[in-house]
UniProtKB/TrEMBL annotation:
Gene name in the database record: zwf
GO BP annotations listed: glucose metabolic process; pentose-phosphate shunt, oxidative branch
Annotated protein name in UniProt: Glucose-6-phosphate 1-dehydrogenase
Positions contributing to NADP(+) binding: R79, D116, L117, K183
Reaction catalysis annotation: D-glucose 6-phosphate + NADP(+) = 6-phospho-D-glucono-1,5-lactone + NADPH + H(+)
Annotated source species: Desulfomonile tiedjei (strain ATCC 49306 / DSM 6799 / DCB-1)
Cited Pfam families: G6PD_C, G6PD_N
Length: 520
């Protein structure tokens, strides 16, 4: 049968002109979304680092891309004395380098209120300020309270909101109230349960949004799409075909100005209890019955429930810890952790961790997951790498007398947002030689629009009431229960000093020789 004209043209385009890789496939329903209702966003901690560095640029970007509702109010609150105009000036300063052509319109939605978070009167005043602003901007009484304040204040602020009547919702669903809580959610299982008890005194679980900006990263969401919207990978995604999984989230940044917090947290609380666990969950979870918040979060929970406990008395078989010393990072000389402002000169706080984790279930029995995170490493890199098993019969290895590299799949989260599959091919020529080649997909391929920043996604999801990318309390508790024994072991200075290995800033962590010495 002869090809019709259109098919022939397509064939010529794809095959003869060799453009298969450049086929433009239009996105399907990528912008179709739920409407965002008018609302007010109250940011407690509006003068702090998180607000200026993350929230302000995200909100302005959402405004520029017309993702915010037409009627909205952003009310900043903190201890500092500031007028509305000063607050607007501070936010504008935080937007340096962005397109400010629509700044004046955006600024007309920004307000500030000086507050003492320990005083109930301050919350009653907040209530009447909100009512006035809601009347002026027509935002109804839909309210989001964002806790960008020290974690020690989360419980009491939630209680103050409740006492001032700000946690309630209209019975007919015409007005809602939501609470956004930043990590850390407690510092161990017990404190996480206590915090949860305090939050629930006045808020229901469906009103509480425990943010994890890693879950909201485009490429992390893409892990689920990659796994469950393709038929060819999932059959391989198990212990029969996968040898090991490496999940890495390392950065070149040091502790910056957060020593007070980091000295208490260290890498295990700062990165493992939250972001690393969520990366593990999206890699290891089963497909949910439907792609909705609760079924997806149920599957996260099942992964966390299946974590093989780490030996309390000797976690060193599964754990490697390090602390950075001075070195050169990206061409710049930097001090060691102990010389950073605010850090104790004899601090044993770990800034690097590698944890070998097993998930005891049918899919993953005995497949090790290596989770690595650390500060002041050679470069910023977050990726999930799936190492497949070697071929069952080493046909070419015998001919070549050399190891054959098993296939691996790299899910690049940041800074390069990509998916690579590496496999063996024949090197051209008369002799039998092999070479590894990589099939690349770059996230920006055939896409020119902006990529939503994680905080933008989290904010918009919260405005839409979608909790899929937020932590549920049962997951929080299971992760603390898993890490608590390790943290308790490390709370003993003698144990910690034995476990903690130095590494040079700008390196890839403690070197292998040191690790071997420490382990013998
Ligand atoms: N910064 C980041 O990148 C990240 C932060 N987080 C979390 O976000 C939260 C905020 O962090 P960050 O912005 O870095 O902290 P900062 O210390 O920079 O800011 C704290 C803010 O809270 C306000 N505040 C503190 N105490 C009171 C009080 N009694 N009454 C009223 N306001 C008060 C401060 O106001 P004032 O300055 O006026 O005193 C300031 O605006 C923390 O829980 C942190 O763990 C989570 C992930 C990343
Ligand atoms: O939550 C945190 O994350 C950042 C790393 O986030 P990223 O999006 O830049 O990868 C980390 O630097 C910080 O210590 C931690 O609190």
């Amino acid at each position: 049968m002869a090809l019709d004209r259109e098919s022939l043209d397509t064939y010529v385009d794809l095959m003869v002109k060799g453009q298969a890789a450049d086929v433009k496939i239009s996105p399907r329903a990528c912008v179709a979304d739920r409407p965002v209702e008018p609302c007010s966003l109250v940011i407690f901690g509006a003068s702090g680092d998180l607000t200026t560095r993350k929230l302000a640029p995200s909100l302005y970007n959402l405004y520029l891309s017309e993702a915010l509702p037409e009627s909205f109010v952003i009310l900043g609150a903190a201890r500092s004395e500031m007028s509305h105009e000063q607050f607007q000036g501070m936010i504008k300063h935080a937007l340096e380098g962005m397109d400010l052509t629509r700044w004046d319109e955006f600024a007309s939605h920004l307000y500030y209120k000086q507050m003492d978070l320990r005083s109930i009167d301050s919350f009653h005043e907040l209530s009447s300020t909100l009512e006035k602003l809601e009347g002026k901007h027509g935002t109804r009484a839909n309210r989001i309270f964002y806790l960008a304040i020290p974690p020690s204040a989360y419980g009491s602020v939630a209680a103050m909101l409740g006492k001032a009547g700000l946690s309630g919702e209209a019975g007919d669903g015409s007005a809602w109230s939501r609470l956004v809580v930043e990590k850390p959610f407690g510092h161990d299982l017990k404190s996480a349960q206590e915090l949860d008890r305090q939050l629930h005194e006045y808020f229901n679980e469906y009103q509480i949004f425990r943010i994890d900006h890693y879950l909201a990263k485009e490429t992390v969401q893409n892990v689920l799409i990659f796994r469950f919207a393709n038929a060819i990978f999932e059959p391989l995604w198990n212990r029969m075909f996968i040898d090991r999984v490496r999940i890495t989230a390392v950065e070149s940044l040091g502790v910056e100005k957060r020593a007070a917090y980091y000295e208490e947290a260290g890498v295990l609380r700062d990165m493992f209890q939250n972001h690393m666990m969520q990366l593990l969950a999206v890699t290891a979870m089963e497909p949910p019955a439907v792609f909705e918040a609760e079924p997806v979060r149920d599957e996260h929970v099942k992964v966390f429930r299946s974590l093989r406990p780490i030996e309390r008395d000797d976690p060193s078989k599964n754990l490697l810890l390090g602390q950075y010393g001075p070195g050169v990072v990206e061409g710049k000389r930097v001090p060691g952790y102990r010389e950073e402002p605010g850090v104790k000169p004899d601090s044993f706080t770990p800034t690097f961790g590698m944890l070998k984790v097993f998930i005891d279930n049918w899919r993953w029995q005995d497949v090790p997951f290596y989770l690595t995170s650390g500060k002041r490493l050679a470069k910023k890199l977050t990726e999930i790498v799936i190492y497949f098993k070697n071929v069952p019969h080493l046909l070419f290895q015998k001919v070549l007398d050399e190891d054959i590299i098993a296939n691996f799949l790299t899910l690049g989260i940041q800074p390069e947002e990509k998916i690579n599959l590496t496999f063996e091919t024949k090197y051209p020529g008369a002799k039998v030689c092999l070479r590894s080649v990589t099939m690349d997909f770059n996230y920006q391929q055939n896409y020119e629009g902006p990529i939503l920043d994680a905080y933008e996604k989290a904010l918009i999801d919260c405005m839409q009431g979608d909790q899929m990318l937020f932590w549920r309390q049962d997951s929080v508790e299971l992760c603390w229960a898993f890490l608590d024994p390790v943290l308790q072991h490390c709370a003993d200075c003698d144990n910690l000093s034995r476990l903690l290995l130095p590494y040079e800033a700008g390196s890839w962590g403690p070197d292998a020789a040191q690790v071997r010495i420490a382990r013998t």
